[in-house]
Write a structure and sequence with these properties.
Structural class: mainly alpha
Strand content: 5-15%
Order of helices and strands: HHHHHHHHHHHHEEEHHHHHHHHHHHEE
Largest sheet: 3 strands, antiparallel
Strand order of the largest sheet: 1-3-2
Number of domains: 4
Shape: globular
Number of strands: 5
Number of helices: 23
Distance between the termini: 35 Å
Radius of gyration: 29 Å
Amino acid sequence: MDALKIPEAAQQKENNESKEQKGSPAHSTLALMDGEPEEEDPWDLPELQDTGVPWSALDCQAKVLRVLVSLVKLLVLLGLLYMFICSLDILSSAFQLVGGKAAGDIFQDNAVLSNPLAGLVIGVLVTLLVQSSSTSSSIVVSMVSSGLLTVQLAVPIIMGTNIGTSVTNTLVAMTQAGDRSVFRRAFAGATVHDFFNWLSVLVLLPLEVATGYLYEVTKIIIDSFQIQSGEPPELLNVITDPLTDAIIELDKSVLSEIATGDPAARNKSLIKKWCQTFTNMSTVNVTFPGPENCTSPSACWSEGNMTVMLKNISTTYGVKKCEHLFVDVQLSDLAVGLILLALSLLVLCSCLLLIVKLLNSMLKGQVASIIKKILNTNFPFPFGWVTGYIAILVGAGMTFIVQSSSVFTSAITPLVGIGVISIQRAYPLSLGSNIGTTTTAILAAMASPGETLDNALQIALVHFLFNISGIILWYPIPFTRLPIRLAKALGNITASYRWFAGVYILFCFFILPLLVFSLSLAGWPVLVGVACPLLALLLAVLVVNALQKRKPGCLPACLRTWDFLPLWAHSLEPWDRLVGVVAAKCCCCCKCCQADDGGGAAREHPLAYDNPAMCGEKVEEGDVSVLKMTKL
């Protein structure tokens, strides 16, 4: 029950480590008078120290050299950002090759989609499978346009795609787990986006089921404006497509065909082979017995005992073959997808680590202070409230340029980790990215044919209105900015127990959606019978926790703490020891036994200091804490 609270010992350990890393903390006057140092706030942005020679102390040649080095670093940074964005694009293609057909199959069962919770979970799972909310949204638009799915049924799915797309930057934050304080900020900066999406769904999905709010408002907008078809603009894709198209090109229409129930599409490959085709329409005579099989009486006539019908047949011929790497490779879609998945993850993680190191070397001294001041300073009173809304507009504009909320939020996550952007500023930037990704969807919907334009555009507007409504709920009033507080709480937990970050991702994006989906398949009675007691228990725990903090006198003596429960039920400490034991079993045989001198004698192993559960007992030798490593 108290699993989301950090034990005092773990918090003290963090504070000690933080003090060792940052040096002596600042002290308030009152604290100095009392003789007690003021504890540092772990969420304060760190000072990026300038360890180089001051600019004024350099001669002319050294100044020129520093400018050239800075320009080279800037060019390398832009190149790494380009590779980072391209690797995200390839990662999306890889996920579509691995799970795209399964994603298309999920959309075919309208009996399941009629359940709003099932539709929400399907949106989450499909977006996780294809790693692109725009792709999953386009599948939904195709189904609505073809009449296989109504707009009302598509609304929960669109909400789910909003949740599924936020997993990318959460995974990016995992690459910064090496440093405790950096990981705290990075993971909180990434999950503030998750909490906003989950909280928005928690409020707006029941509201939509009860009133049809999103559907009715967007319907009024569509009916009020005579919108003409157009073409979506090509912005960042103009730069990234030459590289990504040289590696892999996908025929995304196959996914839509599978979702709309075309049986022939299941045997097609997602890997595009012909980039230019020619379709020839021809008319042939089809002969069959009996006039009852004629579907078009005006095109049929009788010849003896047989009926002849004119039938139009289209034949597509390849004109120009694509030039990507996998155009002639004799491998299945799954094999190509796994290859691209491994390579794109390798490039993505490498680029991210290099970007962080490069930013750390560039953002020093006066440059760092200027950038941090620009990004985190509010407008003077009484216009301070405007700053957040400008950040929302900046996030929307940048996402519109890169045409991917995953790219933008993944790019700012390492900046939050190293302390350039505060989580308070990352929050409105993430909200803006949610709006930016919907504007590109609206423009893409406007490219639909005239007969399907209304439905396609209404779905895109549902996505837009959903995010606007979420911002109204969770941003204007500071008290309602719950995603920031929840993200900080989760950041504190993962800073002490870094394994919990993996548990959070698995539970929120895989286990919970799959559990809800399975219960939805069993029917409403089973779903309600399981979900209602669990939700009631969760609500009771939250209320008791709040009363324990603020008004413990209102509670019975036994409920003022959770000590009456077993330790594993209200603390992460036993689970942390269990994880340590499992880690010891896995890696101690290679690390600890190699550290042994062959006869079982104990020796020091500094790599194991951070995890006392690994291979031995921590003992004090003078002023140094070491682990005695013994052969297992």
